Structures are given as C-alpha cells and as structure tokens.
Amino acid sequence: CSIQRRYQKVVEEAPSVFLNDETRSKMMAQAVALAKAVNYQSAGTVEMVVDEKRNFYFLEMNTRLQVEHPITEMITGVDLVEWMIRIADGEHLTIKQESVGINGWSMEARIYAENPSRGFLPSTGRVRKYQTPPISQHVRLDTGIEEGSEISMFYDPMIAKLVTWGETREQAMETMGDSLNRYYIRGVDTNIAFLSSIINKPNFRSGEFNTSFIEKEYQNNFSTEPIDASLHPYVISAISAIHHRHHIRAGTISGQIKGYGRHVNLNWVVIMEDVEYLTQIQQAEDDNEMIVVFEGSSYKVVDNWRISDPVYVGRVGDKDINFQIEKSDFRYDIICDSYIGKAMVCRPETARLNRLMPVKMPPDHSRHLLSPMPGLLVSLLVEVGQKVKAGEELAVIEAMKMENSLQAEQSCVVAKILVEPGDKLEVDQPILEFE
Q1: What are 131-136's contacts with CB under 8 Å, separation 24+?
Q2: What's the burial of 105, exposed, middle or buried (CB within 10 Å: 0-12/13-18/19+)?
C-alpha cells in the first residue's frame, strides 16, 4: 500500500517501490507458512509493516480479498475472484507458487465522492454526467455507478477503482495521469484532481515516500495547483483552437442576415487566473488541423475532438495532451491534472473592457453557521437567544457513516434557527444565524 489518509488507502501500487527481492521473498515465505499452519483455503491477505531498514513485522491477516486486489491481478495474470469461486466449488488449485511471477507495474487510484479542498468532506447527489477513460489491457476500471446514479450519504464515498499497468513504473504512472484526466464525472465532487496531484509530486515519482505522504505534502489540505509550466503553452493553444472552432461553427449557421453575418476572428485572448495570453489562429493545410501562434512560437493543433466532447484529446506541437473542458458562453471550466479553474476566451477589445469590470464580492456569511457537507442534521444543541463560546458544539451532521460536530468559531449569540433535526442539508446551507 502506498498512499493513505487517516489509514484509508488512496493510491496503491505493486510491486512495492521500496522492497528489494530478498525482503519480498522473505515476506512471501512467511505468508505461505502462516496459511499452511492454519490449513487456510481460498484468497486471503497477509498484512505486514516494514520499517525504513526493511525489517518487517506481522500486522494481521484478512481472510478475504483486499480492495486493491486488481493490482495483484494485473502484475501476476491470476484472476483471484475466479479462483475463489472455483475453490469454493470444490476445485483444487492448479497454480504452483513458483509459477506466479511479477510482470510489469500496476497502480490503483481510488475515486472518492469527496471534496479535497474542503478537508475531504463527502459529496452526495446524482451523477449528472459520466464518461470513463478508454478501457484497455493497460487500463481497468472497477465501479458500480453510471450516469444517473445516486451517491447517498449512507454509504462509503468510494465510487470507483482506476487501475493502470505498464512495463515500468513510469509507464504505469503516465497511463494513470492520462486516465485521470479523461475520467469525467459531474454532479458530485470527486478527488480526481487530488489523485493527479499525488502522482505528479516529485517524492512520489521518485519513490521516496511512506504512508504519511499526504500529511507531509498537504499540510494545509489540497487546493488547485497551476498547470505545469512545460505544459502551459500547449494547453493555452488548445483552448484557443477550441474556442475558434466554436466560432467557425457559429459562423456557418444558415439564415444570417445579409451584411450582418458572423465574422470569425483570428486573434483571441485566453484569460486564466487573471493573466492574459494573446494568441493568433492560422489555418493549416488540412481542415482538421490548426496553427496557433503563442508567444512567438507556432503550435500545430491536431485532433478528432468534437464540440460536444467534455474531454479534449489531441496533439499540440510535439505533445499529446488531454484535459476536461466545458463551455459556458465564452468561458470554459477547465480540469487539467491537478488544476481546477476557468478560462475566458475573447477578442482583444473585449479583454481590454474586461479589465474595467468591477469585481463581484461573494455574499457575507460571517453571521451564519453553514453546513460544510451534504448530510442529515442529527441534532441542534443550542436555542434562540443562547450565548455560546468559541469551541462550543452547535450541531451534529451525519454523512457517509460518520457524525461530524460543528463548533462555534467565536463567542456569539444565536439569533435564528433555520433548520430542524432530521432535515437533509445541502453544502453551504445556513443552519444558524447569529446576532
């Protein structure tokens, strides 16, 4: 097991990047000896803890399959579930221990319905849109949801296991990164961008980590991260080409008034995180290609992308790239690796006017207690007019098999109670109002 949060596994891989052949052989011998000693049958998992000097210690044995059994299947070629069924049916195991080898590298990322930027609070609701990455011999997806599925507050938030294989660890990681970018889920929050962040951390890629990786790397929780500098011009060029394609399509709509037809602009400004990037479109020889000039360099954009596709897959310059993109007027929601943000694409004059627009301030909820997650309000521990002190418990919300205590951030007086115990709450729904 590789990456954990609160003893809950998040990313697993096999074989272990830390173990050498000698230690692995000794651990396997101990596991086999244990199974023989109790005359064990069927699949089981012997768990051990390994210290920094590769000393290992028995932890426990789970007499069942582990959640991460797909990575074992991917590198051994043994279908563990099939053999469990065959053994239960009275068949004898025909596989010899010496015939089970390690072929390549496999990784598993657990997809959770949760919001990493809000302390990994669970997310519930209906899966409005759902598109999986392409499944192949190198990509496996174990899931029980589909478009329209309901993610309930009453069960574990894990909704899928994304598994990749490669001849090397680097190949398995690259395939995982591409697959995460192409895993499109809307309607509930997920940890997909967080998983992308993990596999791109230098310490993870080098294998220099332990089970406290998340606590060390994300001390202030996860927040969106900038697009990698080496990838940034390629993503900007792709976004500019996508927007231009929308305008080409709009310009071909029939019924336009003569003399007032839509003029397709060639100069676009892509605005991301309040930074403007000027691009220019040049048509290539092939209708399926486009040249984007950005910061003095030309990038040929080649793809089979359609306007209705929520995931962009193409080749820009000398790089194969993919990211999620959804259009809303001339703005786009972008998810690329661990970046979650918006892009605005417009003409240079529109960009100039946009700089003059006033900034809309978010609503002031400083006098409210808001629900940090969707869940069931179990109890309210205060009443109108009551004085509460900082740290005093105000309410309890149940979600995903856990009770969450909400406490006062400062001393105050309760002015209004806006909900009742037993109510189902949405994220950021006001519960109490203070004077």
Answers
A1: 131/182, 131/183, 131/184, 131/310, 131/311, 132/182, 132/183, 132/184, 133/162, 133/178, 133/179, 133/180, 133/182, 133/183, 134/182
A2: buried
Domains of the chain: 3-217 (3.30.470.20), 232-354 (3.30.700.30), 368-434 (2.40.50.100)
- The three-class DSSP label of residue 394 is strand
Tokens read off for 99: 């015939």
Here the contacts of 404-408 (C-beta below 8 Å, separation 24 or greater) are 404/372, 404/373, 404/375, 406/369, 406/371, 406/372, 406/431, 408/369
Q: Concatenated DSSP letters for 134-156?
A: PP-SSEEEEE---TT-EE-TTS-
Average pLDDT, the chain: 91
Minimal CA–CA distance to 18: which of 217, 203, 173, 167? Answer: 203
Instruction: Give me the catalytic one of 12, 47, 52, 60.
Output: 60
Provide CB contacts within 8 A for 281, sequence distance 6+.
Answer: 240, 241, 244, 266, 267, 268, 290, 291, 292, 293
Residues 6+ apart with CB under 8 A from 212: none
CA dihedral over 124, 162, 82, 37, signed as positive or negative: negative
Verify cis geometry, omega within 30 degrees of 0, for the bond prior to 421. no
Where helices occur in 38-109 by DSSP H, the ranges are: 69-76, 80-88
Q: What is the pLDDT of residues 222-271, one digit of tens each?
A: 999 999 999 999 999 999 999 999 888 887 778 877 777 677 889 999 99
Instruction: Write out pLDDT tens, residues 361-383.
Output: 888 888 999 998 888 999 999 99
For 280, phi then psi, to 5°, come to -135, 135
pTM, rounded to two decimals: 0.87
pLDDT tens column, 177-209 = 999 999 999 999 999 999 999 999 999 999 988
User: Residue 64, SS3?
Assistant: coil
- N-terminal to C-terminal alpha carbon distance within the chain: 49
Assess contact for 191 and 120: CB atoms under 8 A.
Answer: yes
From the number of C-beta atoms within 10 Å of its C-beta (0-12, 13-18, 19+), residue 392 rates as middle
**pLDDT for position 426:** 87
Known catalytic residue at 393: no
pLDDT digits (tens, 9 = 90+) for 28-77: 999 999 999 999 988 899 999 999 899 999 999 999 888 899 999 999 99
- For the cut 70, the answer to whether the pLDDT of residue 284 exceeds it is no
pLDDT of residue 283: 77
